[in-house]
Amino acid sequence: MTNATTQTLILQSLTADLKALKELAQSAAPTQITELSQHAIRCTGIAASERSDALKSQISDLAFAAKIDAYWSTSPKQLSDFRFLAMDMDSTLITIECIDEIADMQGLKPQVSAITEAAMRGEIAFPESLARRVALLKGLPAEALQKVYDERLQLSLGAEPLLKAIQAAGIKTLLVSGGFTFFTDRMKARLNLDFTHANELEIVNGKLTGNVIKGIVDAQEKRRTVERVCAQLGITTQQAIVMGDGANDLAMMEIAGLSVAFRAKPVVRAKADVALNFVGLDGVLNLL
Fold first, then answer.
1. Quick check: 233 and 246 in contact, CB under 8 A?
2. What pLDDT, in 10s, does the model give residues 206-243?
3. Are residues 220 and 264 in the same domain?
4. Cellular component per GO (predicted)?
5. Is residue 1 part of a domain?
6. How many domains does the chain fold into?
7. Which residues is 5 bridged to in the sheet?
C-alpha cells in the first residue's frame, strides 16, 4: 500500500509484453513491480519528488506513443470501495453510435455522423444535436432499428469480462445513454443489467416520426440518473464508477469516485481519472 509520499503506476496494453512494460517503468524507479497479466504490471513505491510531474508526463507520453495505457495514483482503490457502475452505451459499452447506423439506412450517415462527432467533442449542445439528427430519420421504417441491432451492434472489447467481475462482486449496473431505449432495453436483458435510462423514439404506423418523446437524456439528465440510482441504493456517488467517451458524459463522470474515459474524445480524457485508450473495458479491473 502506498503512502502520501509514494505513487503507484499501472501500465497495460493489448500488445506490449512484460519486458516492454518493465523497461518503460524503470525510469520511475519503483520499489516493486507486480505482474498482473501478460500485458499489465503494477509498479509501487515510486517516490514523489519535485520532478514527479515532469517524469509522469514523460512516461505517460512514451506510453501513449507505444499504445500503452498508463495510470498514476497516490491512493490506489479497491474493487470493494465501489457499489455501483454506470456506463454510457454508444462507443463505450458498444462499438457503434446507434443513431449513425440507423441513419445509414437512410443514406444519411455522413451528415448524422458529423453532428454526432461535434456533439461528443462538446461543440454542439447535446439536445440540439439529438433533435437535428433524429429529425433526419423521419419516415424510416421501425424495422431498421432491429436490423442495426442484429447486424451492426457489437460489444466493446472487454465488456463481458468487466461485467462478469463487477456482477460477481455484487456491484449494481446502470446503462445511461443519450441513445435509444430500443437498444438499452435489449442490452439490459442480454447482459443482466440492473438499470437503464435512454431516449425513446416516437414511432407511428411503423415509422419513425423524427421526434423523441418523454424528454431528452442529455448530460445533466445522465448526472441526475446516477444521483437517483445512488440514492435508491443508499450509497454516495463516490461509491460509483462512471464510464463514458463523450462530452455529454462529463457531468456524470465528475461526481464519481472513479471516472473512466474509454476510447474518449480529448476533452473527456483530460478530465477523467483514468483514460483507457488502448485496452478493453476490463482494463479498469487492473486499476482496482
1. no
2. 999 999 998 899 999 999 999 999 999 999 999 999 99
3. yes
4. cytoplasm
5. no
6. 2
7. none
